[in-house]
Design brief:
Elements (H helix, E strand, L loop, with lengths): L11 H8 L3 H12 L8 H15 L5 E5 L4 E4 L5 E4 L4 E6 L6 E7 L14 E4 L2 E3 L7 H14 L9 E7 L10 H8 L4 E4 L10 E5 L2 E9 L15 H13 L6 E10 L9 E10 L2 H22 L2 E10 L6 H16 L6 E4 L4 H7 L4 E2 L6 E2 L7 E3 L2 H18 L4
Helix pairs in contact: 2-4, 4-10, 6-7, 8-10
Length: 409
Amino acid sequence: MENEPQITALGSVDAALIDSIDAPAMLEQVQGWSAINSGTGNLAGLERQAHALADAFAALPGEIELVEPAPVTAIDDRGREYERQFGKHLVMRVRPQTQRRFILTGHMDTVFPADHPFQDQQWLDDETLNGPGVADMKGGLSVMLHALLAFERSPVSGRVGYDIMINSDEETGSLASSDLIARLAGGKAAALTYEPSALPDGTLAHERGGTGNYSITASGKSAHAGRNPQDGRNAIVALSDLVLRLTEMAGEDITVNPAKIEGGSANNVVPDHAVLRFNIRPKTTHAMERFDNELNDLLRNIEAQHEVGLSRHGGVTRPPKKVDAKAQKLFDLVKECGALLGQDIGWKSTGGVCDGNNIAACGVPVVDTMGVRGGSIHSSDEFLIVPSLKERAALSALVLQRLATGDKF
């Protein structure tokens, strides 16, 4: 195929590792996993997917564990707190006794629930497969697995160990797995995460902004809209005022997106209850902290002016990811390995977020778009460029080989 890795510049050991990668097996695997609906809320589908992954990753020399999700609460449309349900996370530890260790992460969930119309695959051309999760990120999971299978054939693989974490809730912010990610990432020399490339040409995501999701519940007082509206305290009016003031908090280093107000009943009743949902995207840690502090003051101001009670839920789920000198060294290593394979690897900053944000917050250098080349993720047009399965597995295998020797990183 046109994008088959070129191994002419490699030594015999590296060439043998890459030659062992089975591209047809990878494609068959991705198609099988894509056929399992694993929308974040589909607990039965996530269980099927977790067991399918456990069966596949059992080919590696480590112990597999399915870890219970951490408790997570959310706010319903009446402002009541409830517990959200998530699937189990897959964790595998290989050679935990070694001093030099890495972490590789991915996610098994998709954004497509069980009742979504996008459930099937189709070929767009000889090298492009359209299907749910084929790029984000069941293709990436296959890249991770086959890169590791190739790496395990290396004579230096025994020098290092690694943890694998595949969570079930990445698409909704990893709230049920963030503590697990932090525990596993702690003390690791480097991390690779298998989100699809930032662009279909294989470009990596570099620095990332952060994200936070908030729910603000307003409790007012109902009254008849005609007879005694003055006795009411309109929760929707209070939140509408809050929305306008929130938008004024946006700037070059942070965006604020009021997304939804839920509340009210009949037209002749002053609404006594409403919930506002909004998202922020801070570019810096300073902007993130500044917003959080200013939000508390703003809520108290709105309470006093509208004579309502306000309560907040949520906050920043992924801090901004900066690329420091050590992380840049890992990017440079990936680029060098790509060059040996005939792959021109570049990178660009992005406003998107992923578990790479959480890993970087632990002080661990991470490249978080080591998965397949593809595009149109989170839509029914999602596609995988099939030759990139072996291409990107070869890239990861070579990076792991260099990380194991410690010569370049």
